[in-house]
Design brief:
Layout: H1 9-15, H2 21-38, H3 52-61, E1 72-76, H4 84-91, E2 94-98, H5 102-115, E3 119-122, E4 134-140, H6 145-155, E5 156-166, H7 170-177, E6 181-189, E7 197-206
Parallel strand pairs: 1-2, 1-4, 2-3, 4-5
Antiparallel strand pairs: 5-7, 6-7
Protein backbone atom coordinates (compact mmCIF):
# COMPACT_ATOMS: atom_id res chain seq x y z
CA UNK A 1 0.00 0.00 0.00
CA UNK A 2 2.91 2.36 0.63
CA UNK A 3 3.73 2.44 -3.09
CA UNK A 4 0.24 3.55 -4.08
CA UNK A 5 -0.48 7.06 -5.24
CA UNK A 6 -2.55 8.79 -2.54
CA UNK A 7 -6.26 8.50 -3.23
CA UNK A 8 -7.99 11.76 -4.13
CA UNK A 9 -11.35 12.75 -2.64
CA UNK A 10 -12.92 12.37 -6.11
CA UNK A 11 -11.51 8.87 -6.54
CA UNK A 12 -12.65 7.96 -3.02
CA UNK A 13 -16.20 9.06 -3.80
CA UNK A 14 -16.15 7.07 -7.04
CA UNK A 15 -14.91 3.94 -5.27
CA UNK A 16 -17.83 4.23 -2.88
CA UNK A 17 -20.28 4.43 -5.76
CA UNK A 18 -20.83 8.17 -5.48
CA UNK A 19 -21.09 10.43 -2.43
CA UNK A 20 -23.02 13.71 -2.32
CA UNK A 21 -21.14 17.00 -2.00
CA UNK A 22 -22.39 17.74 1.52
CA UNK A 23 -21.18 14.41 2.86
CA UNK A 24 -17.82 14.82 1.13
CA UNK A 25 -17.45 18.22 2.78
CA UNK A 26 -18.14 16.69 6.20
CA UNK A 27 -15.61 13.92 5.55
CA UNK A 28 -13.06 16.57 4.58
CA UNK A 29 -13.83 18.43 7.81
CA UNK A 30 -13.18 15.23 9.73
CA UNK A 31 -9.74 14.86 8.14
CA UNK A 32 -8.91 18.49 8.92
CA UNK A 33 -9.83 17.99 12.59
CA UNK A 34 -7.94 14.69 12.70
CA UNK A 35 -4.80 16.28 11.31
CA UNK A 36 -5.05 19.17 13.75
CA UNK A 37 -5.50 16.95 16.82
CA UNK A 38 -2.86 14.46 15.69
CA UNK A 39 -0.21 16.94 16.77
CA UNK A 40 -1.34 16.64 20.39
CA UNK A 41 -2.79 13.12 20.54
CA UNK A 42 -1.54 10.00 18.78
CA UNK A 43 -4.85 9.20 17.08
CA UNK A 44 -3.56 7.32 14.02
CA UNK A 45 -0.26 6.23 12.56
CA UNK A 46 1.44 9.30 11.07
CA UNK A 47 2.27 7.28 7.95
CA UNK A 48 -1.43 6.76 7.18
CA UNK A 49 -1.94 10.51 6.89
CA UNK A 50 0.08 10.39 3.67
CA UNK A 51 -2.96 8.68 2.09
CA UNK A 52 -5.88 9.58 4.37
CA UNK A 53 -8.71 9.27 1.87
CA UNK A 54 -7.79 5.62 1.28
CA UNK A 55 -6.48 4.55 4.68
CA UNK A 56 -9.17 6.20 6.77
CA UNK A 57 -12.13 7.47 4.75
CA UNK A 58 -12.53 4.72 2.12
CA UNK A 59 -11.57 1.99 4.57
CA UNK A 60 -14.26 3.05 7.04
CA UNK A 61 -16.89 4.49 4.68
CA UNK A 62 -17.18 1.24 2.74
CA UNK A 63 -19.10 -0.16 5.72
CA UNK A 64 -21.98 2.21 4.97
CA UNK A 65 -23.05 -0.20 2.21
CA UNK A 66 -23.67 -2.84 4.89
CA UNK A 67 -26.07 -0.64 6.87
CA UNK A 68 -29.83 -0.19 6.73
CA UNK A 69 -31.60 3.11 7.28
CA UNK A 70 -33.06 2.03 10.64
CA UNK A 71 -29.89 0.46 12.06
CA UNK A 72 -28.45 1.46 15.40
CA UNK A 73 -24.69 1.04 15.50
CA UNK A 74 -22.25 0.36 18.33
CA UNK A 75 -18.61 0.94 17.35
CA UNK A 76 -16.16 -0.67 19.75
CA UNK A 77 -12.71 0.79 20.36
CA UNK A 78 -13.54 3.81 18.21
CA UNK A 79 -10.16 5.50 18.63
CA UNK A 80 -10.16 8.28 16.05
CA UNK A 81 -13.71 7.43 15.00
CA UNK A 82 -12.75 4.73 12.55
CA UNK A 83 -15.01 3.27 11.38
CA UNK A 84 -17.88 4.42 13.61
CA UNK A 85 -17.83 8.19 13.17
CA UNK A 86 -17.27 7.90 9.42
CA UNK A 87 -20.16 5.45 9.07
CA UNK A 88 -22.37 7.82 11.08
CA UNK A 89 -21.49 10.66 8.69
CA UNK A 90 -22.18 8.46 5.69
CA UNK A 91 -25.48 6.98 6.87
CA UNK A 92 -27.05 9.23 9.48
CA UNK A 93 -27.62 6.12 11.62
CA UNK A 94 -27.69 6.62 15.40
CA UNK A 95 -24.23 5.49 16.49
CA UNK A 96 -22.67 4.76 19.87
CA UNK A 97 -18.89 5.21 19.96
CA UNK A 98 -17.13 3.25 22.71
CA UNK A 99 -13.62 4.51 23.49
CA UNK A 100 -11.88 4.13 26.85
CA UNK A 101 -9.10 6.70 26.22
CA UNK A 102 -10.41 9.99 27.65
CA UNK A 103 -8.43 12.18 25.27
CA UNK A 104 -9.63 10.25 22.25
CA UNK A 105 -13.19 10.46 23.58
CA UNK A 106 -12.81 14.24 23.77
CA UNK A 107 -11.59 14.27 20.17
CA UNK A 108 -14.58 12.16 19.09
CA UNK A 109 -17.04 14.58 20.68
CA UNK A 110 -15.40 17.56 18.97
CA UNK A 111 -15.15 15.81 15.59
CA UNK A 112 -18.80 14.74 15.86
CA UNK A 113 -19.84 18.31 16.66
CA UNK A 114 -17.95 19.79 13.72
CA UNK A 115 -19.22 17.15 11.27
CA UNK A 116 -22.78 17.17 12.65
CA UNK A 117 -22.72 13.41 13.18
CA UNK A 118 -25.43 11.65 15.18
CA UNK A 119 -23.26 9.91 17.77
CA UNK A 120 -23.01 9.34 21.50
CA UNK A 121 -19.55 8.84 22.96
CA UNK A 122 -19.00 6.40 25.84
CA UNK A 123 -15.64 7.06 27.49
CA UNK A 124 -15.30 3.57 28.94
CA UNK A 125 -14.16 0.07 28.06
CA UNK A 126 -16.43 -2.09 25.93
CA UNK A 127 -16.73 -4.69 28.68
CA UNK A 128 -17.96 -2.13 31.24
CA UNK A 129 -20.43 -0.12 29.15
CA UNK A 130 -24.00 -1.35 29.80
CA UNK A 131 -25.19 -3.53 26.89
CA UNK A 132 -26.20 -1.26 24.00
CA UNK A 133 -28.49 -3.67 22.12
CA UNK A 134 -27.29 -2.41 18.74
CA UNK A 135 -28.55 -3.91 15.50
CA UNK A 136 -24.98 -3.62 14.17
CA UNK A 137 -21.67 -3.75 16.03
CA UNK A 138 -18.58 -2.51 14.18
CA UNK A 139 -14.87 -2.62 14.97
CA UNK A 140 -11.57 -2.00 13.26
CA UNK A 141 -8.10 -3.05 14.48
CA UNK A 142 -9.30 -3.51 18.04
CA UNK A 143 -8.43 -7.12 18.89
CA UNK A 144 -8.27 -10.63 17.42
CA UNK A 145 -11.71 -12.18 16.96
CA UNK A 146 -11.37 -14.57 19.89
CA UNK A 147 -10.96 -11.56 22.21
CA UNK A 148 -13.31 -9.27 20.32
CA UNK A 149 -16.39 -11.49 20.06
CA UNK A 150 -17.35 -11.43 23.77
CA UNK A 151 -17.52 -7.63 23.57
CA UNK A 152 -19.47 -7.78 20.30
CA UNK A 153 -21.92 -10.27 21.80
CA UNK A 154 -22.41 -8.05 24.86
CA UNK A 155 -23.59 -5.09 22.78
CA UNK A 156 -25.43 -6.88 19.97
CA UNK A 157 -29.21 -7.19 19.73
CA UNK A 158 -30.40 -10.83 19.57
CA UNK A 159 -31.03 -10.63 15.82
CA UNK A 160 -28.15 -8.24 15.15
CA UNK A 161 -25.02 -8.56 13.08
CA UNK A 162 -21.38 -7.59 13.38
CA UNK A 163 -19.56 -5.85 10.54
CA UNK A 164 -15.83 -5.98 11.21
CA UNK A 165 -12.79 -4.84 9.23
CA UNK A 166 -10.01 -7.42 9.24
CA UNK A 167 -6.65 -7.96 7.59
CA UNK A 168 -4.82 -10.84 5.98
CA UNK A 169 -4.90 -13.05 9.09
CA UNK A 170 -8.69 -13.26 9.21
CA UNK A 171 -8.95 -16.96 8.35
CA UNK A 172 -6.66 -17.95 11.22
CA UNK A 173 -8.64 -15.70 13.57
CA UNK A 174 -11.89 -17.34 12.49
CA UNK A 175 -10.44 -20.80 13.07
CA UNK A 176 -9.58 -19.90 16.68
CA UNK A 177 -12.84 -18.04 17.29
CA UNK A 178 -14.99 -20.94 16.08
CA UNK A 179 -13.69 -23.06 18.96
CA UNK A 180 -15.75 -20.89 21.30
CA UNK A 181 -18.39 -19.29 19.07
CA UNK A 182 -20.96 -20.43 16.56
CA UNK A 183 -21.74 -17.92 13.83
CA UNK A 184 -22.66 -17.43 10.21
CA UNK A 185 -19.83 -15.70 8.35
CA UNK A 186 -19.78 -13.73 5.13
CA UNK A 187 -16.51 -12.30 3.79
CA UNK A 188 -16.16 -9.52 1.24
CA UNK A 189 -13.02 -7.96 -0.20
CA UNK A 190 -12.04 -4.60 1.21
CA UNK A 191 -12.23 -1.63 -1.16
CA UNK A 192 -9.19 -0.01 0.43
CA UNK A 193 -6.75 -2.88 0.95
CA UNK A 194 -6.21 -5.88 -1.32
CA UNK A 195 -5.41 -8.06 1.69
CA UNK A 196 -8.30 -6.78 3.79
CA UNK A 197 -11.72 -8.29 4.38
CA UNK A 198 -15.08 -7.06 5.59
CA UNK A 199 -16.62 -9.71 7.84
CA UNK A 200 -20.36 -9.87 8.42
CA UNK A 201 -21.23 -12.13 11.34
CA UNK A 202 -24.78 -13.22 12.13
CA UNK A 203 -26.33 -15.78 14.51
CA UNK A 204 -23.48 -15.20 16.94
CA UNK A 205 -23.67 -17.41 20.02
CA UNK A 206 -21.18 -18.81 22.54
CA UNK A 207 -20.51 -22.53 22.42
CA UNK A 208 -21.04 -24.17 25.80
CA UNK A 209 -17.87 -26.11 26.45
CA UNK A 210 -18.18 -28.92 29.00
Amino acid sequence: MSDQTPLSPTACAAALGGVDASTMERLGTYLTVLTKWQGAINLVSVKTLQDPWRRHILDSAQLAAYMRADDTIADLGSGAGLPGLIVAIMTGCKTELVESDQRKATFLREAARLTDASVTVHAARAETVPPLGASVVTARALAPLQRLLPWVYRHLAPDGRAVILKGAGVDEELTHARKQWSMSVMQNDSLSDASGRVLTLTKLAPINVG
